[in-house]
Amino acid sequence: MSIFITKDTTFIIQGITGREAVNLTRENLDYGAKIIGGVTPGRRGRDVYGVPVYDSVKQIAEAHGTPDGSIVSVPPRFTRDAVFEALENGIKLIVIVTENIPRGQVAQMVELANLRGARIIGPNCLGIISPDEAKMGGMGGPAANTRQAYTKGPIGVMSRSGGMTTEIASTLTAAGLGQSTCVSIGGDAIVGTTYAELMPYFEADSETQAIAIYSEPGGRMEAELAEWVKTNNSRLPIVAFMAGRFMDEMQGMRFGHAGTIVEGKEDTTSEKIERMEAAGISVAERIEEIPDLLRKRMAEAS
Amino acid sequence: MRFYEYESKALFRRHGMPLGEGQVVNSSAEARAAAEAIGGPIVIKSQVLSGGRMKAGAVQFADTPDEAAAKYDFVLPIEVGGETARSVLIEAKSPVAHEYFVSVTWDGRRKLPVLLFSDMGGIDIEEVAETHPEHLSRTHFSTILPLSERIAKEAISSVGVSGGDLNRLVPIVYKLMQVFLQYDLTLAEINPVAKLEDGSFIVLDGHVDMEAEARGDHKKLLAELGIGDDETRLARPPTEFELEGARLNAVDHRGVAGNVVEFDGNLGLIIGAGGGSLTLFDAVRKHGGKPANYCEIGGNPSVGKACNLTKLILGKPGVEKIAVMMNVVSNTRVDIVARGVIKGCLEAGKDPSEVITIFRIPGAWEDEGFKILEKYGVEYCDRSVSMYEAAGRAVAKL
Fold this sequence. Notes:
By secondary structure, chain A is α/β, with parallel strands linked by helices. Chain A is built from ten helices and 14 strands.
């Protein structure tokens, strides 16, 4: 089992003829993805690695039926409209790769997605991977590299950093712990899906036995997760890694992702660590501690 | 990206919000002239980005032009959060009957803007939230429905404000919400908006933050307010080193090799990506290392960009050696970074095997990258060496 995507998930790529999107197409196809079409206005009739290109999402839906999902990889100025286009054509799972989108526009996309009963992952993310099933996004890079880092198993991974998702998966794999589904949720201040919003999916997935998360300064997402864990009596042990501890001394400076800026005391790593530990989440100092902590917590849970 | 008070007020004024008479001055003579023009009691306010002005004594009052000039000289050197005045704002002192607080910001959990309103303005709002929660309302509003005055009315009336005060406050609060959305602000705050003794309302102090990502969409406004492209408006102004880093990163559009932040250590860091850099910076410090800089490599930067970044960091006074480290990469080509970094060392007249303490970038094209590193005798490692361990090896070489 996995969450969100399986071998049979169909999706499209909006902005498919862009440089990054062409790479994504190749990497996802090589990993077994069912990409039924791509959109770039004015490029209908071409193809990208055999994937037919259309002018609009509507044309794809008419030709092939409504896809399950879409990867949006268009420049920031056009992202909101592309996401609206996907939503208004009935697509229910949208991965937004693009970064540097002002949060007002992200809020609009999320609001419409909620009205349409759809889910957004990202923006500024590498998407989703369920090892040996499918991937939808840039996680792990080329298929061969992806297979090296990601293997199938019991750990769900959620991360505010795309790159660190692969680092964690690779560390888990080396320690003999595979992953059920890994979600790169995005590095922005407002993202379509937070840790706490992913938890019910992992909770319902029989394959997932524990969760590893990558976390960093900024925002209230960790506090939200801590609350969720406490109020829902979660069956899943969680191990978190907290990066950017040095930023606690440097409020108002910007490092890393857009979402990391520390605007108040609640945004600091020390505050987040305290909240998570109080909710029973183990916090690792180093990435390489994660596998042992997970094993220990899983043994305690069973 | 924070605005100074006078910039925030200039923005409010354009949108028809009520403001008192005021003038930005840059000398005591100008302060005297401004006070003369206003005639009557005035306020002298240091223009800094940090909070806590009043406590620091950087807000003063005067009754005469001479006193205003003297208070200008008094306020100018006062440090507020390590920052001194950019300029000074001279305003008429208004006879205040009551103060209100209004603020619009983002709620990342609800993913909506939230309007905060209190009839206990002028004081620390966190304190009001704790001691008098019934005097603070929080009202979320949609970003896709047309903005309407109804939201402002609900927010204000739910703390008990009614009658003429309610009807005079609604348009001010509504305009603040409009400004917030129109200019991609992350914070638009008025504390206080004051009811004067004559029953009219004015904005006494304003605070605006614009999202850095949206700067490009508001170039015209920023130019008109006189906010330059090189003003990052972070907790401290950018250094020459940081500005040069930004310039080099902008040379071509391929990937990122920048976001440089200056520190004063001896170990130059060429690290990535967003989350990896945070992890590695922590790791270096945990090992007792002293970073000379923070930076980020991301996406797929060209050889030229990686080379320029390397030269910039090697050229920084105090830098003895560098460490090149990233998390397992997905879309950055290891060989291109390796080539760029080695080229940078050579162009800086340094021996790569001497100056590069460790190269730890596992992932796509790593074999090709490692071949290049081997040729130049640079110590490298693959993913079997953790980020933490790699940082330790780098620190040990200093």
